[in-house]
Amino acid sequence: MTDIALWVRHGTPEKHWQLGTDSPVGTRWTLIGWDCQPAPVDAGVPPAVRRVFAHALAEVARVTFVSTQFAVPGSAGWSPIGADAGRELHRDGWASPLLARLRQQPDRLSLVSTRSAQTIEQMFDDDGFPWVMQAQIALLSPPDMPPPDVDFGSMAELLEGRWPEDTASLARLGVQAILRPAVDGDAVGLVGLAGSLDERFVASLAEAASRNSMQWRALP
Fold first, then answer.
1. Which ranges of 64-196 does DSSP label H, i.e. alpha helix?
2. CB 84 within 8 A of CB 70
3. What is the enclosing helix (H) or strand (E) of 49?
4. Sheet with 3-10, edge to edge strand ranges
5. Which of 14, 138, 144, 173 is geometrically suited to a Cys-Cys bond with 148, CB 3.0 to 4.6 A?
6. How far apart are CA 91 and CA 174, in angstroms?
7. Which is more confident, 75 or 24?
8. Which of 2, 6, 3, 4 minimizes the C-alpha distance to 217?
9. Over the chain, what is the mean pLDDT?
10. Residue 106 near residue 129, CB atoms below 8 Å
């Protein structure tokens, strides 16, 4: 049996976590990690931790992330995928597909937006956007709002570890927090943009940890 302790620390993470460039002024950083005994063999999020994260997120937020695991409609706008929603974003510009291939970057991104813990859990295990390679990003918005109409450029910047110059535009779309993997996927960086959704998620995670007999540590 594995003993698991989740820990949380507020404030800008150290550089070795490789969580991207400095976030914009007015945002709030939270770093969340886990300690397991015995230590896991593989990098990334252990299955039990994935489940706790997914249920805690589903309780307080709509989660929108990039995915290759769903058949996302190619039409503009959001379309239903069962109880979830999906859409495809395309790089702007007539030469973009060629430039994307030259730069080894995608010219389109498929997004899934969900309130389902089962769907959220798949975010940690997508071969096309591997969590352990820091190739994943998730936007958190209020659960009663529709999926955010984020554009290709903003998502591409976030996936590359950069921050959009105008994060206020994301907030206007309803995005209140952004979640991204730290180096080797061994921790989670959470940035609050507006509202208190990041704080509510941390509180939800603490409760989920307790329900699942995991320790919870608030670090200075």
1. 96-102, 117-121, 152-159, 167-172
2. yes
3. helix 47-60
4. 79-81, 84-90, 108-114, 62-66, 138-141, 177-181, 187-192, 28-37, 3-10, 215-218
5. 173
6. 22
7. 24
8. 6
9. 87
10. no
User: How do 108-114 and 84-90 pair as beta strands?
Assistant: antiparallel
DSSP 14: P
At 200-217, the pLDDT tens digits run: 999 999 999 999 999 999
Angle at 75 between CA 69 and CA 78, to 5 degrees: 70
DSSP-derived secondary structure letter, 95: T
Structural domain spans, the chain:
3-218
Q: At what angle do helices 47-60 and 197-211 cross, to 10 degrees?
A: 130
Contact 199, 29 (CB under 8 A): no
Of all helices (H) and strands (E), which one includes residue 203? helix 197-211
Q: Tell me: the pLDDT tens digits for 63-110?
A: 999 999 887 766 678 999 989 999 988 876 544 544 444 345 567 889
Record the pTM.
0.90
Q: How many CB atoms lie within 10 A of CB 47?
A: 13
